[in-house]
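Replying to the earlier thread about multi-chain prediction with a worked example.

Input:
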Amino acid sequence: MSRSLKGGLFRLALLFSLGVGFLMLGTLLVDVFKDGLPYLDKTLLTNPPSVDPEIAGARPAIIATLYLGGLLLLFTVPIGVFTAIYLEEYADKTRWYNRLLEINIQNLAAVPSIVYGILGLAFLVRGLGLGRVLLAGAMILTLLVLPTVIIASREALRAVPDSIRQGAYALGATQWQVVSRQVLPAAIPGIATGSILSLSRAIGETAPLIMIGAVTYIAFDPTILGPFTALPIQIYQYVRLPQDEFKLLAAACIILLLGILLTLNAFAIWIRNRYRRTW
Amino acid sequence: MVTMADQQVTTIEPMSLADIAQEHSDEAYKNREAVFEVKDLAVDYSGATAIREVSLDVYKNSVTAFIGPSGCGKSTFIRCFNRMNDLVPGAHVHGDVLYHGKDLYGDDVDPVEVRRRIGMVFQKPNPFPKSIYDNIAFGPRVLGLKGSLDERVERALRQSALWDEVNTRLKESALGLSGGQQQRLCIARCLAVEPDVILMDEPASALDPISTTRIEDLMHDLKREYTIVIVTHNMQQAARVADMTAFFSVDVAPDGNKRTGILVEYDRTSKIFTTPADKRTEDYVTGRFG
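Result:
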């Protein structure tokens, strides 16, 4: 077999792999849009779920998902960034407890989300007695994505060259001044990107929320300390209903969820490109 | 291929180091006042000794150069003067470094305060990813220095001969400057906090010859107000700018494994480059070694 033939075959294999991904995504999108587009209207956004598919919407789920996302950022970003700063800038890496902490965070990032759901049910809903409320859902999603945010933030901090730290120290800056005025601002694009990508992962999560008992049918706007549902759960519920129209409604919800996720991811990419820096 | 130009260059007698060696004027040398007194200093990193048995004085308003082959510990040594080695995990400094008679490593000494008085310029220009103005203003801001920040920035840029090149674009990113300009910016940044001493760790090694000349000219000007210590592996540079020169070398233990930096000879630059007392110094400055 000639060398150029080998090269050509390899190229074909690459294109085939790429094609599989594209085809799957394309089929999914076409299918979902075909079913859901007619139902993607104002009713979906403004009406609560109903037994009549013509007037049924997903307003409580949409609001709850926005709440969940907002609370999630509020909880995750400060905790995640501060943890990352401690591990990257302050911790003495030769100490066993810091290394243990590091390994633990890596492992936590790999724990299946359903396990976090069980943890949430046991400790937040029952242990702390929060009940099956939106706040508990936000907290459990926080725990779920925190390791990812910490790891992404650490990488962003590590990407700031040491020469910047040294330059700042050499001028008589304290460690906190070096971190807060030089290292952190330089790392913000990376931290923002990591946080947003984690957020979009969390918004699509279903299992832990089902586990802590996000109810599937609420007809009123959710509050932080009340029962709630979320878009993925709403989709799950609509698909399970016998009438075919609800399946189309589910498709409309999927388009909405995909839209939110793609917007978030596009925003993350924009931040990354906008603030890309070369040293 | 040997061209005509190459042949011509080789026929020109190179200026000897002795000819260009900077002379610490007799008067200055006689009235010399020590800023640093180093006594029997050693540095080890997690037990491995990088440099040992160094004793020397650094004099006020002069340029002191540390020269020597790679791995002789000159960069490690210069970082003892502003306690930058404190930032390296596992680094230990033994012996005494007196600064105006006070122990730099005393229990009551805050390394942050030390670095505010003793500035440093690094081998590779390291401007902050901020505007030119914010680079210079960073030091005064974190130290909470009083007075007009604008004036301070302008003065520092003038002192480092950068003002004319950048005064119309102070708000632009410092990363857009050329390498030589970036290094002068780093010098300006250092001057903006009004230090007493400026340490320079091979400040021109990453620069082209013209930028190097400008940095060297700057050192001549700055030594009137500041005390300058410079690490260089360029002997011509040491000869051109330094009043005093210390030659460091690597001492290899008999078993051939442990390599430690040692101070071989420290004297007036003119002496080091014309009549060195030590054979090793002579071999190095005449190019027979290193």
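The CA atoms of residues 67 and 247 of chain B lie 5 Å apart.

Feel free to reuse this layout for your own posts.
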